[in-house]
Design goal:
Length: 138
Amino acid sequence: QLSTVNQYDKTAARSRRMTEKIPKQNVAAETATHPLVRIHPETGKPALYLTAMQTTRHFAGLTPEESGPLIEYLLAHATRPEFTCRLRWHPGTLGMWDNRCLLHMALDDYPNHRRVMHRITLKGGPVVGIETARELVE
């Protein structure tokens, strides 16, 4: 089972405001290894556990240089138009999504408007990959 090595360092540098509320620990230095393909706990459907180099650093057992082309290929596939949903923001718009099964990004395409974002993060269970899911079923 192919796994990704993830690290919060780049995201933490950009999100210092939000991380001030996290208990004082070196979040940026910690890494976590997760299966590339995870199983959604409610739908049972597979989804890629991958980010555009924000937290995903490389595949376990490969260098970042070796991992880069495959990460780029998978992200290019996952972000094809037929797999995307475009939310056109206007005042009063509410957007919600499940990070366990999708990638997201914000576009600054609402000139002369100020976007207010309220974020909640819910504690979830462990990431379950295909191999673990098979073991649970058997």
